[in-house]
Structure to design on (709 residues):
């Protein structure tokens, strides 16, 4: 039971985080209607995942490992692109909101509303299929399958609760700070997704990694990316992958106890430029809004 | 940014990936299922050997930690199939389409490191049949080739009727002029005719072969010797006296041989038009190779049409038949990755070169030069081209059927 609970937690945490941040965000800018659309996106993603998962589990045909990994890996990369777009979009919207008028309706959201829904859909649907396959499989075990099944479901619920808790904490911040921090959080989460998208594609045999032998006659440099040489570290003995800490780390920052060099490079290659870009834009914004505030304080107030 | 095309593209890509990655799940009764039990320190697989095809591993975690199960390729690295997240007390299934070869099975209790209980796993038997997409392409190719065979036999029947009528009537000039053009229809589909037991020997055996096998000598070549009777002292292709044991047919015998050929060709027609006339894709690809072998062993030596000298026309017929067979499976071959594309390009090119070489000596409409007039040099030029084509063509079966050539 604890085993399945932790798997559910690990698989559900990062999607929950993205969705919770999104919901909080549209709530703060007073767009309840978009919140409903986000819930719709999440509901569709869950329904599709469970439906397809059930067909593949109980139907005549399953999905080959390669296909699963390739679908998962590719969707992860799309999800990263969408989340990145969302972070910068939120930043742009937040500068158009005057801080006195929190909840002011912004025109940006009309066009981007569906984008936000798609982000929610992808965040959930990306790992949804794998999670659904896992949840359904728990029902095929021994007589007391219900324990395992409940564990999995409870794990997902706990993940949602944790995400909600984290976001609640951020709720108390004033709006600009809230945007900044959720931006940081989302970029770190997305970097983690990049890392294990790479891992999925390695397992699918698409890119070189520990699951591929080096080509014949490869030099030492080439060889260092294949087979056992491809690992950067393997600390599974120190941080058990089936434990609570590992579940928490993977579901948030994307850290797993065994990572390859290429995963780390991909992680850094996404995180460093994106974060730099975000911080610089944010600084420029704050400077501008401070200048605007000072100007408005010296000018006679318009009725 | 517009979301709709993106969503559509995503959906499309996912669908394609799904279709390409379909593996049949185990039968509900568990037939063909291999059980795997993973514990803290063991990874028991119920059998270390199975036959190729769709196999399902039913992996039960009897340990106290979450486990994973992998099937690895021969190099011990590439993942052929895996199931993760098998919680204690639960079981998950892994379905794979297994080709013959050596594999490894391994469990990873606690999801750590290189895993536990890595064991050799052998898959015996034949290459697994093709995917459904390929099957559809195969069916289409077979249908097309069947239609081609039926069409050629359909042309052969009236041509034989006219040829035999002239021969039986003693109109040798007309019969001689029809000989090569009539045989063309037969030569194009020769491998199919050969698949019907003693039909090809009755229709197309040469004198020396019929004698060697103790058969009654009938068919095209019996008629040919009547139309181009050997001069006194002429030799057969095996250097025996051509007139020994041979006399020109009487009008009654001509009628007998003529009717026999008509009847045999009619039988061929009913066989290829029967509902139970079946072909497989390798009949087509191997048929193409068979046609070229015909050329290399029979036609190039000039033994086929020893008296008429019309070997080049038969040669052309064999090449055309091979080219049609190849054309029918070409798309299929080209769908098999770079190797298939490269091979098809080579075959295309070689067909072109061979046809060019043949065109130097005539064509099917106006006839070809007498084979005996070719110099040794020219014969060598032809046989070099035939060999250059036979080599890539012989790899066609493995490429089209996706069987790795060892």
């Amino acid at each position: 039971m604890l085993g399945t609970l932790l798997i559910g937690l690990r698989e559900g945490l990062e999607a929950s985080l993205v969705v919770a941040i999104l919901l909080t965000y549209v709530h703060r800018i007073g767009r309840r209607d978009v919140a409903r659309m986000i819930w719709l996106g999440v509901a569709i993603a869950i329904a599709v995942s469970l439906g397809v998962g059930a067909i593949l589990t109980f139907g005549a045909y399953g999905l080959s490992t390669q296909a699963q990994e390739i679908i998962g890996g590719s969707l992860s990369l799309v999800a990263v692109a969408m989340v990145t777009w969302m972070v910068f979009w939120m930043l742009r919207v937040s500068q158009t909101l005057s801080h006195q008028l929190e909840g002011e309706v912004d025109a940006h959201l009309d066009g981007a509303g569906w984008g936000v829904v798609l982000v929610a859909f992808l965040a959930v649907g990306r790992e949804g299929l794998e999670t659904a396959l896992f949840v359904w499989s728990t029902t095929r075990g021994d007589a007391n399958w219900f324990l395992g099944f409940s564990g999995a479901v409870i794990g997902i619920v706990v993940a949602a609760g944790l995400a909600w808790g984290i976001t609640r904490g951020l709720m108390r911040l004033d709006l600009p700070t809230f945007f900044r921090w959720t931006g940081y959080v989302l970029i770190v989460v997305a970097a983690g997704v990049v890392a294990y998208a790479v891992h999925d594609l390695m397992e699918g045999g698409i890119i070189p990694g520990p699951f591929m032998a080096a080509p014949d006659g490869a030099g030492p440099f080439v060889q260092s990316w294949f087979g056992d040489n491809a690992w950067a570290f393997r600390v599974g003995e120190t941080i058990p992958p089936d434990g609570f800490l590992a579940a928490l780390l993977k579901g948030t920052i994307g850290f797993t106890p065994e990572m390859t060099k290429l995963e780390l490079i991909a992680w850094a290659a996404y995180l460093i430029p994106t974060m730099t870009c975000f911080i610089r834009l944010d600084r420029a914004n704050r400077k501008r809004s401070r200048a605007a505030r000072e100007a408005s304080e010296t000018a006679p107030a318009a009725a | 940014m517009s979301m709709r095309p993106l969503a559509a593209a995503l959906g499309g890509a996912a669908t394609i990936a799904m279709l390409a990655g379909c593996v049949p799940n185990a039968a509900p009764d568990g037939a063909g299922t291999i059980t795997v039990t993973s514990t803290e320190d063991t990874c028991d697989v119920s059998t270390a050997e199975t036959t190729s095809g769709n196999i399902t591993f039913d992996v039960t975690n009897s340990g106290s930690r979450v486990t994973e199960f992998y099937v690895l390729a021969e190099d011990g690295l590439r993942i052929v199939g895996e199931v993760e997240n098998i919680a204690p007390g639960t079981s998950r299934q892994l379905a794979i389409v297994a080709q013959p070869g050596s594999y490894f099975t391994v469990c990873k209790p606690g999801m750590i490191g290189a895993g536990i209980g890595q064991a050799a796993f052998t898959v015996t038997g034949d290459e697994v049949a093709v995917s459904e997409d390929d099957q559809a392409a195969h069916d289409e190719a077979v249908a097309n080739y069947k239609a081609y065979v039926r069409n050629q036999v359909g042309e052969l029947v009236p041509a034989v009727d006219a040829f035999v009528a002239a021969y039986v009537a003693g109109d040798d000039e007309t019969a001689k002029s029809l000989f090569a053009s009539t045989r063309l229809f037969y030569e194009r589909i020769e491998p199919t005719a050969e698949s019907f037991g003693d039909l090809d020997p009755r229709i197309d055996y040469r004198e020396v072969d019929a004698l060697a096998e103790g058969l009654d000598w009938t068919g095209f070549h019996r008629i040919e010797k009547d139309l181009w009777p050997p001069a006194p002292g002429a030799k057969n292709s095996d250097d025996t006296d051509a007139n020994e044991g041979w006399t020109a047919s009487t009008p009654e015998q001509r009628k007998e041989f003529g009717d026999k050929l008509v009847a045999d060709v009619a039988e061929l027609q009913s066989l290829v038009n029967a509902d139970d006339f079946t072909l497989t894709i390798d009949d087509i690809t191997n048929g193409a190779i068979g046609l070229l072998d015909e050329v290399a062993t029979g036609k190039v030596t000039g033994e086929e049409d020893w008296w008429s000298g019309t070997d080049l026309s038969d040669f052309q017929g064999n090449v055309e038949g091979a080219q049609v067979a190849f054309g029918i499976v070409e798309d299929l071959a080209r769908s098999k990755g770079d190797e298939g594309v490269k091979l098809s390009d080579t075959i295309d090119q070689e067909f072109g070169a061979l046809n060019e070489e043949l065109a130097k000596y005539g064509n099917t409409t106006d006839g070809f030069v007498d084979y005996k007039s070719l110099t040794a040099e020219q014969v060598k030029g032809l046989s070099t081209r035939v060999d250059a084509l036979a080599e890539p063509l012989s790899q066609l079966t493995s490429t089209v059927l996706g069987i790795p050539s060892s």
Remarks:
- DSSP finds nine helices and three strands in chain A.
- The radius of gyration of chain A is 22 Å.
- Confidence is low (pLDDT under 50) at residues 99-105 of chain A.
